[in-house]
Amino acid sequence: MFPKCTLIKINGKFAQTLAAVTVNLFIIADGMHYGWSSPIIPKLKSADPQIPLDKTSITILETMYLIGGLAGLPATMYLTDILGRKIAILSASVLNLLSWILIACTTNIYVLYIARFLAGMTADMGFVSIPMYTAEISDKNIRGALTGFVLVATILGVIIMYSAGPFLTISESALIGAGLNVMSIGTFSFLPESPYYLLKNNDEEKGRKSLKLFRRNSNVEQELDEIRIAVERQRSERGKFIELIANKGNRKAMIIITVLSATLHFGGMSVITMNLNEIFSEAEEFLSPEASSIICSIVMLIGVIIALRLVDKFGRKILLFTSCVLTGLSLTLLATYFVLKDNKYHYNIHWIPLFAVICYSVFLRIGICLVPLVMNAEIFPLNVKSKGMTYGDFIGIISGIICIYIYQELTHRFGIYYPLYIFATCCMLTAFFTVFFIPETKGKTLEEIQMILRGEKLKGSEEIKDVNV
Known about the structure:
This protein is about 75% helix and about 0% strand. The protein is mainly alpha-helical and about 475 residues long. The chain is globular and about 70 Å long. It is built from 24 helices and no strands. The chain has helices spanning about 10-25, 25-35, 35-45, 55-70, 75-85, 85-105, 110-135, 145, 150-165, 170-190, 195-200, 205-215, 220-235, 245, 250-265, 270-275, 275-285, 290-310, 315-340, 350-370, 370-380, 385-415, 415-435, 445-455.
């Protein structure tokens, strides 16, 4: 991937960054799937739709993406653990390509269901294996930023779909997603497997070569020894699901990921991303729903880029706490607007929905979106990492399905402000959880993080304070 002639021109951090960009081409295509329903469903509900749609079909199209992710969990665990991170990522890219081809070619609602299901499966495989791969090839000082780049890629995909979806046919927008997958497969195929995975499978020579490529340094023996020691210690421990609750460090990691993965969706992320056009249509604000959605998606991207600059500077904990509080306030403001609107108060409040969603888009991305992704790749030891990350993904998927159902039901029965107030409350509760329970992992090696979770001493530091769980 990086020719020998460029060895003196490309340093290790640049090589790792380039690898992260390459592997995340697939995630851009998946981000298009994630934002697909917002511009496409209004098309399907139009007077002359390409594919006729009723209310039940809308709910199925939105939830099928998440249900597919649930079904993809066993494949994710098998591929990442047995066949490797690289095979898992390439498999996800191929299936994602197939889902876009189905969307481009069909005029049948049931084929659309299958395509959304496949897209959900690949999203699950990608969101487990890509952060895992990125964390294992990255230097500890930039690991948070590179692992979180998956969010940049996701939002780039959302921006493409919000921008192209309303103005292109369904087939034309699908071809864009297919092209991104072709690029992903063609470039990532040349990258090596993670050095952690190679040493775990006793392939030390390939592990050394992989580490040299990503560090752009021929002298990697010290880091290789550190990885070998970590792999040996973690391999000596059992890697069964029971270890997630039997081991003190894993138990604490599991509780943290349960709360953070649930908050990711109970903060309204999936609901608002999938229904943004509908929310702006309901708000009756001064811009068109399409224009407002594009503006908000660009602001999402800015928020993530800011967060990636801050996550390895200020740390995970302060970003998460700030994000939870400010996201909760943004949702409260948006919900209050709809209360005023329902009570026929219209004086000078039409600016509130766009302002509230812009604030929400930034504040959600600087912590609630980024930190769970980074910590999910950091806090589980190698012997249960794929199981722990898959568990976190499972909690996120279940939470997303529940949130979509809550949103649809409460909005239909009582008004859109009911679920928005619930989401705001969840964000505030997670802020308190962050203060009292979540450790800081900034600047720590993966092995040091395990020591913190177990309550052990780090070299040159005082004993780690820990919560008994």
